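re the bet — no i am not wrong, look at it urself. input seq straight from the record:
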Amino acid sequence: MKNIFLMTAGLIVMANSYAQPVKLITLDPGHFHAALVQKSMYAQVDPTVYVYAKKTVDLQSHLDKINAYNADKTAPTHWKEVVYEGDDFFARMIKEKKGNVVVLAGNNQLKTDYILKSVQAGFNVFSDKPMAINEKGFEELKQAFAVAGKNKLLLYDIMTERYEITTILQREFSMQPVLFGVLQKGTTAEPAVTKESVHHFYKYVSGAVLTRPAWFLDVEQEGEGIVDVTTHLVDLVQWECFPGKIIDYTKDISLISAKHWPTVISKKDFTELTKVPELPAYLKKYSDAKEDVKVMCNGEMNYTIKGVHAKVSVTWNYKAPDGTGDTHYSIMRGTKANLVIRQSADQQYKPTLYIEPLVAGAAFEKEVQSVVEKIAQQYKGISLKKNAKGWEVMIPESFKEGHESHFARVTEKYLDYLAHHNMPAWEVPNMLAKYYTTTQAQKLANKK
């Protein structure tokens, strides 16, 4: 119970001493990210994991995924799940204190309260995103971070996208003035940084079609798209544009505009997605006479961060066309070059990084090549391929881990922070800045 690994966004609570093994507690798992934390084993983590939840389909789905990882033929895990089922599961977890890290990935309406009460009870927390889905939740999250800091606990969210190689290299190149120059300030019409994400309700996870819980379509429980997936995008804006810098949400963030719109899920698709034959009562308010459900899962925000114009947007479709999947677009505009990630048909739906210069000449091209050679000392094998707009960054396949593998990377980072008390000073204020940005955007979109 004392160690929590969560997949999607994470909470950090720092413990006083970790000479003893980390013991995980999985609390009320309702999202597949909770299981992805356990797709790998970790030397510091006790293989016995304590699970507290009501007896539900969500719980069984979680346990089925853990069992599948244990039975994997190529890289089997050996987790032992000790499960408590009951309506009093949360009080029982607090009372028994079987673990020291609580892993959270599930119903987002409940998550912020779980976080606060867990740190108040002395647990470290590793949480999926989002940790807050509205302004009220943000205020509660601020309190949770204050308690965690006072009690020397680690509360952290699971930011998997920091471990995607094209994003890592986009950040690395942006820190090379001879190639990138400096980040432009941009405008609302042409932001200095834009990040766009397209997701799908129907998808494959660990080789199988994912069954979504019915509550995933209720924005009061899951959160609107503008506070959910955008958490990753807002995090990347901060992490890439201001590496190692503290973002103070009280003075560095200014919302300009925000909007949201629904995706309609037909009754047939709802049943295919959730395996639930009838709409629950809580979805009726979003449905029409045909029982098609309007899910407010799409959103866009324009804002400035430390005076730099940024735009973030997320779109959800039901199912991706064959051979495609979730996609990502990102551009950072420098004074010497733009750094662009594209992931469409031209890239075979695989993220690809481009360097598109704003200056010309052999001298600049030589500078670019020298930067690539420098970065290749750490990321061995990267090179450039000339194209009409500049260069494509060629990345060896060994660096191209999938999304599921990134959960292990985040968990390893969390465990390192937990063991060595070395989390950078910017992480907590920047988590607060991130959730301030998303929840204020949600508030602004709802006003319209």
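see?? The two ends are 44 Å apart (CA to CA). told u. also The chain is about 35% helix and 25% strand. so pay up
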